[in-house]
């Protein structure tokens, strides 16, 4: 699993580096990711934020458009930008719709045999990427990880975070999301994707792939969650995101505004223009926990 | 020349709006531009920055990747993002190379009859866009304009600015550029483009389309210029940018560090990762003059 460096761009005194490697989690397909290393990483290991992108994105979109690098440089935090799915699996139907398959791996480990060899983004993000980065000797302190994401990647961030609390692994110190798919078992995007990837369908998803279900199970355990969504987001309006369901479930089991903060942002949409507006806020939120 | 609004995205409490109109300067072709209006534009007219993009870009690239909107919102300054050329002229050869023609109008008014009907980006940026924006009743104060740009757009910003001083129009209060093509009559990109667009070729370009020639002619008149370029910029290394020529010409006619500041940025390249690093600096530089 040797890393091949494809490019490097200096940014905010740090470096945005693109790597490629053959991923066993993704069935031995080549995958790429971007890593932002702030300048202070040349002196000592730095904490790390994983950023999970939304539907159709690659490892590049948020690195280019998210306005995250400046605040991360200022806080001295690295960011890993994975891809959103395996590429090149050649499975029938994986490119038929933009909401499922290529560019839309939903951060699950597939149990449907049709997808199980390649679609293992959960393992890719939580285990494989930390392992290959560590083995490459890059200056990341994996005892200090947090996670954030957008839309489908917000679903990924929330479920990976909540699962790591549920199972006692506590891999991530904090979680934030922009316009996350918050209750996928109850929205068309989630029902389609989880229904296809999991042999037990939506029922199987409840245990670990639905943020609203997960937060209900966790009542009592300390969490640090920040969510922003825009009221003019058309996917919010059409019921793909359902942040109110997540918020209600959190409040119902006793989480307050400090533990689970969900902000409705008036007039903002689903785009990177929305995300970049609140990007610095999210980075600073995580830095509080990563640098503690 | 009625403006058609194509989209609007809220960003940093302001709005990034995409417009389309039939441009007479570009030979009655449709053209598009983006306008960022900061929140304070709802109360009173705001000053404006014109941003000129580089080769192959459209009105979108810098709006998405430049990290300019946050600082502009903070300073209460609008930004106009024009396209980089006419599109759809159908002139033979205009799409043969990426450094000339479509996506590469070089901000000149063509005098070669082959291009003269459509390739008039100078008039488009300096006269037509202010006129259509004003006629649409948008809240821009055109008595307070400044200009900046990247690469070919840095050439555009410098030459439009210096020309408006040379001719006494003083349209812009300040000028800045990222990795500008600073002496086009002496680099391959400039020689090709100016040689094609102008019937008098490179010789004709000297009077108004070469920043190094222009600054030499201006000695004494007050200027406010900021330039950043990266030492790892491959186009700098291959001699397309020549910022040292511009700097030498400026110093030779007596401009000091305050009037003409040219900064060599160690290890940075030609990308938006470079530009976004220094974007806030440039916005704040212009705001000093626009808000005076």
TrEMBL record, chains A, B:
This is S-formylglutathione hydrolase. The keyword Methyltransferase does not apply. The keyword Hydrolase applies. The active site is at 151 (charge relay system), 233 (charge relay system), 270 (charge relay system). It is found in: Cytoplasm. SUPFAM superfamilies: alpha/beta-Hydrolases. Pfam families: Esterase. Keywords: Cytoplasm, Hydrolase, Serine esterase. It comes from the Eukaryota. The lineage of its organism: Eukaryota, Fungi, Dikarya, Basidiomycota, Agaricomycotina. GO terms for molecular function: carboxylic ester hydrolase activity; S-formylglutathione hydrolase activity. It is an enzyme of class 3 (hydrolase). Gene3D superfamilies: alpha/beta hydrolase. GO terms for biological process: formaldehyde catabolic process. GO terms for cellular component: cytosol. Serine hydrolase involved in the detoxification of formaldehyde. Its EC number is 3.1.2.12. Belongs to the esterase D family.
């Amino acid at each position: 699993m040797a890393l091949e460096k494809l490019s490097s761009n200096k940014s905010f005194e740090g470096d945005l580096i693109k790597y490629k490697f053959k991923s066993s989690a993704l069935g031995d397909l080549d995958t790429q990711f971007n890593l932002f290393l702030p300048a202070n990483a040349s002196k000592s290991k730095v904490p790390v934020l994983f950023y999970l992108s939304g539907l159709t994105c690659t490892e590049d979109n948020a690195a280019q458009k998210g306005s995250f690098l400046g605040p991360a440089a200022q806080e001295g935090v690295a960011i890993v930008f994975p891809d959103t799915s395996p590429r090149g699996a050649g499975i029938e139907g994986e490119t038929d719709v933009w909401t499922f398959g290529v560019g839309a791996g939903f951060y699950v480990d597939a149990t449907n045999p049709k997808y199980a060899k390649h679609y293992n983004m959960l393992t890719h993000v939580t285990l494989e990427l930390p392992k290959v980065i560590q083995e490459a000797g890059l200056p990341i302190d994996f005892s200090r990880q947090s996670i954030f994401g957008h839309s489908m990647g917000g679903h990924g961030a929330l479920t990976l975070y909540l699962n790591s609390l549920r199972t006692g692994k506590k891999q991530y110190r904090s979680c934030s999301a922009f316009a996350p798919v918050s209750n996928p078992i109850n929205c068309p995007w989630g029902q389609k994707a989880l229904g296809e990837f999991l042999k037990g369908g939506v029922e199987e998803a409840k245990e670990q792939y639905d943020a609203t279900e997960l937060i209900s199970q966790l009542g009592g355990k300390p969490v640090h969650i920040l969510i922003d969504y825009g009221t003019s987001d058309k996917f919010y309006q059409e019921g793909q995101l359902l942040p109110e369901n997540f918020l209600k479930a959190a409040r119902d089991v006793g989480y307050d505004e400090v533990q689970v903060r969900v902000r409705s942002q008036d007039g903002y949409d689903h785009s990177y223009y929305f995300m970049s507006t609140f990007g610095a806020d999210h980075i600073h939120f995580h830095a509080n926990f990563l640098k503690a």
